[in-house]
Write a structure and sequence with these properties.
Blueprint: H1 25-28, H2 30-40, H3 43-78, H4 81-84, H5 102-125, H6 129-145, H7 147-154, H8 160-171, H9 178-194, H10 197-211, H11 216-223, E1 228-233, E2 239-244, H12 247-265, H13 274-288, E3 302-308, H14 309-312, E4 320-322, E5 326-328, H15 330-339, E6 342-348, E7 355-358, H16 368-376, E8 393-396, E9 411-414, H17 416-424, E10 428-431, E11 438-441, E12 447-449
Parallel strand pairs: 3-6
Antiparallel strand pairs: 1-2, 3-4, 4-5, 6-7, 8-9, 10-11, 11-12
Length: 455
């Protein structure tokens, strides 16, 4: 392994030339040296060798990051106090207000400490909490179940993509199957070093199937319980809907859409591509239950749209904002408003952006204060969070029980995970009453201003 990791510092510079005994100043001038190297035909060889060395070093650093994140998360679970405060169950006179036993309270403390630590790491590294927790999980899985791949990863011999693939596959084995772990580790250790990520994913999946101690039927039944669908906003007024489910149903849905798309594509005058037709067919089926070959009936949504007053008057083209998505063009905004059974129109000043008016004539909309909070903070105010405010709790920054007022200066949207962290960990939300500035302080004493909305 040491031979594999041999690294020459001189190759870090692709234009490096070894010193010699020449006394000719022209040959030792940097420009002359570079020109000589390039004319010799060796420049690409030196650069490629240097690049390989840089790649190994980068892999080592990534693996070190995985290991460090896992260490912090493990330590948070073992010693929650720095993240959630002193353990109240150590006091002989302690009684849980909810009547829970001490063992359950301690388990909750460990869970919240890990979540608080993950959020702290996320803001420091500029990652999502999910990415932090995933890297910690992958490091723990590789260290425990696939030590050969883990050691190669730490040595820079396995890419992060292949290490991730191994961790994902290894995590799917039963917790009480160390023999299967070892056989899988042995089966993929060499391929993880040599194969490209795409080919290795196939190799790793095949190796998993060969050594897995459980039947495919049992695993499929369990995996089907994780079926899900999720939405992701994209640019230019587009979005992606992903469905994770049993292969036979997903494939049947795709095949039906493909067959219908090909049927439509063969009709006279049809100009849409097969890709466009497949998307249109699937969306028609999901939104109306039928396929209208002329013009699909659209569902009539209830929407919240923020419209600049000059756009509403037709004097400007500044984009409107669709709640839960972001900027949309004025034509789309007018169409949605026209089709909606109810909608909230929020007029804003063309220069300052200050809210001028909130339409209160809609049916079944939140109360005025909650509506204003949704305008001021359209997403969760937790660090890095983009969950729409309408799906969040309205949190009292200073708890009601401690004198906190139900006023906009003391309220803000927090999704359930971040609400729990604020309430039960040492993450603290502060506000300057003079300036209105609001910020978080992490358990490791990092100040974080409340992030502006992503739109």
């Amino acid at each position: 392994m040491e031979a594999d990791l041999e690294w020459r510092a001189d190759l870090a510079d692709p234009y490096f030339l070894p010193a010699d005994d020449s006394s000719d100043d022209e040959l030792t001038h940097p420009d002359v040296a570079v020109a000589a190297l390039e004319s010799s035909g060796e420049a690409h060889t030196v650069a490629v060798t240097a690049l390989e060395g840089l790649s190994i070093r980068a892999r080592v650093l990534i693996a070190d990051e995985y290991a460090a994140i896992a260490t912090i998360m493990t330590d948070a679970a073992a010693c929650p106090d720095p993240w959630v405060g002193p353990d109240p169950t150590q006091d002989p006179a302690w009684r849980d207000p909810q009547g829970r036993p001490a063992v359950k309270v301690r388990a909750e403390r460990r869970n919240i400490a890990v979540r608080a630590a993950a959020l702290d790491i996320a803001v420091r590294l500029g990652m999502s909490e999910f990415a932090v927790r995933t890297r910690a999980s992958h490091a723990d899985t590789l260290r425990e179940r696939c030590p050969r791949v883990w050691n190669a990863f730490r040595a820079g011999l396995v890419s992060a993509q292949n290490a991730t693939t191994v961790a994902q596959q290894a995590a799917s084995f039963p917790d009480d199957a160390p023999e299967a772990w070892a056989r899988f580790d042995e089966a993929v250790a060499t391929a993880a070093r040599t194969l490209s990520p795409g080919k290795f994913r196939v190799r790793a999946r095949v190796a998993r199937e060969r050594v897995h101690p459980e039947s495919v039927e049992l695993r499929h039944q369990r995996a089907a319980e994780d079926r899900n669908a999720w939405f992701q906003a994209d640019h230019d007024g587009m979005a992606t809907l992903t469905v994770f489910g049993p292969v036979e149903k997903v494939l049947a849905a795709h095949d039906r859409a493909d067959a219908q798309a090909r049927h439509l594509r063969a009709q006279p005058g049809e100009e849409r591509t097969l890709a466009q037709l497949r998307a249109d067919v699937l969306l028609d089926l999901m939104t109306t239950g039928t396929i209208d070959e002329a013009e699909t009936r659209r569902r009539r949504p209830s929407v919240a749209i923020t419209v600049p007053v000059m756009t509403l008057l037709g004097l400007d083209d500044e984009p409107a904002t669709l709640d839960g998505y972001g900027p949309i063009d004025s034509e789309t905004a007018r169409r949605l408003a026209g089709e909606a059974t109810s909608w909230v129109r929020i007029l804003t000043h063309p220069i300052s952006g200050t809210v001028l008016d909130v339409d209160r004539t809609t049916y079944r909309v939140p109360k005025a204060l909650r509506r204003w909070l949704g305008v001021r903070d359209p997403v969760c105010i937790g660090p890095g969070c983009t969950r729409p405010a309408r799906t969040c709790d309205i949190d009292h920054r200073i708890d009601w029980q401690y004198g906190g007022a139900t006023a906009d200066t003391n309220l803000g949207p927090l999704c359930e995970p971040h609400h729990v962290i604020k309430s039960k960990s040492r993450w603290t939300l502060y506000r300057d009453e003079m300036t209105g500035a609001t910020w978080w302080v992490t358990p490791t004493a990092l100040d974080l201003p409340i992030e502006p909305a992503p739109w």
